[in-house]
Amino acid sequence: MTLVFHERVGHEGRRPSPFSWRIRYALAHKGLLDTPAVEVRPTRFADRPAIEALSGQRFVPVIEHAGRVVHDSWAIACHLEDAFPDRPSLFGGTVGRGLTRQLNLWCDGVLMAAVRPILVADFPAVLEPGDRAYYRSSREAMFGCTLEHYAADRPAHLARLRDVVAPLEALLAEQPWVAGAAPAYADHVVFSVFQYARLGCTAELLAPGTALAAWRARMIALHDGLGDRFPGYPTP
Amino acid sequence: MTLVFHERVGHEGRRPSPFSWRIRYALAHKGLLDTPAVEVRPTRFADRPAIEALSGQRFVPVIEHAGRVVHDSWAIACHLEDAFPDRPSLFGGTVGRGLTRQLNLWCDGVLMAAVRPILVADFPAVLEPGDRAYYRSSREAMFGCTLEHYAADRPAHLARLRDVVAPLEALLAEQPWVAGAAPAYADHVVFSVFQYARLGCTAELLAPGTALAAWRARMIALHDGLGDRFPGYPTP
Predict the structure, then answer these.
(1) Which of A52, B46, B92, B154 is most buried (most C-beta within 10 Å)?
(2) Right CATH number for B94-224 from 1.10.132.30, 3.90.870.40, 1.20.1050.10, 3.40.50.620?
(3) Measured between beta carbons, which residues in chain A are less than 8 angstroms from residue B171?
(4) In CATH, B3-83 is 3.40.30.10
């Protein structure tokens, strides 16, 4: 039975959404991506009415599988783990699942908040031209200021990010993957945030020579270079 | 063969060290604490020369087991997991071990830094009187100011802590233990920091009704109330 993966798409086929990247990597980890078992449906912000009609809410990723419609990347990852128990594990057991959830909440609450001001003013260029006005107006309403004002002091935001990722830098100086000896969904989640920035703005978040930069390169290379399959930030 | 656990001891038998609390809970989790398999040796700051002679460094916890001397709480936890593989697991597998290390580094780097200014001026009272001058002078050299100056704005430090623990609060609103369905070493590590503050100062870090406060109460109650076995902060 085909699994339908509704994934955010941007300008000229770009993939700008961290939450969709997590699920793309999770599907590859399970050996399902690029097989007839999965159909990818690229989704713009402008496709919101169809996503709402399908899932009862506006955000992607959404999957349709086994008679269910599942939204929210964490719920999708849990569904994939439980629906494909004989494929490589995303969590490595119940403790791994519990602790992956811990890291997932930290990424969404803390890491994303540190990354967002670095990229947000650059980000419209990676979206479909028709999606850009919606992105700008919705985010400016959320921030209470223009994207440019919110993003103004990039050096300070980059310095703040270095503090936030210090425990991850220490971790990856000790072990090759966030999940230990081999990559797992915890890696997908952390990577998705750096991938979001790598493809979504002109700033380099990770200094050469850091353990995080080396790990990110290993993540990009997984699954035949999955992290480089789509266009990067547009050159002027 | 007996395992010797060198554990920090404070005034009138108090247990003030978060790093020793982790190992105390890990030993209980493995079913070894309070059995003839483990001998606990309480250790004061003033016992530093003996600890240095034994382990080549000054900090406790230290264990002696199977012909080895192991220091550093993470290394000790890994030793216990590997030396007692048939006892309840501290990590729940390789992914769990990798992610527990991630949380451990975050706790030591971020959570401890948020908790330290809340308790540090109160903390000497829980130490042996003979250890207090060393504690004060070593910490004041580290902070570059008096303990009282470092700790001055407790409401601001408590507000900062609430931000830092927001992802843990969200996690424990979803699942009963940090490690998911059952407690594991990840819980021991996070708990050790709150226990350090609970026994080491007059401030209450966790508001009643929070998921973290309820989880902390469950952690205290484990292993026949292990978290309440020693005296609390001295009453004036």
Answers:
(1) B92
(2) 1.20.1050.10
(3) 101-102, 105
(4) yes
Does the interface ipTM go beyond 0.85? yes
Q: Per the CB < 8 Å rule, is B96 touching A101?
A: no
With CA atoms as reference, report the closest residue to B161 among B169, B172, B171, B149: B169
Q: Which fold has domain A94-223?
A: Glutathione S-transferase Yfyf (Class Pi); Chain A, domain 2 (1.20.1050)
Mutation site for B-interface testing, chosen from A72, A81, A95 by largest number of B Cβ within 10 Å = A95
Question: Which residues of chain A neighbour B92 with C-beta distances below 8 Å?
Answer: 92-96
Å between B41 CA and nearest CA of chain A:
31
Write the pLDDT tens digit of every residue in A195-205. 999 999 999 99
Option in B98, B110, B177 nearest A175 (CB): B98
pLDDT digits (tens, 9 = 90+) for B161-206: 999 999 999 999 999 999 999 999 999 999 999 999 999 999 999 9
In chain B, % of residues over pLDDT 90: 98
Which residues in chain B are classed under CATH 1.20.1050.10?
A: 94-224
Report the distance separating Cα A7 and Cα A45, nearest Å.
11
CA distance A15 to A154: 23
Strand partners, A177: A180
> Nearest C-alpha of chain B: how many angstroms from A178?
7
Rg of chain B's alpha carbons, rounded to an integer? 17
Query: pLDDT digits over B218-234, tens only?
Result: 999 999 999 999 999 99
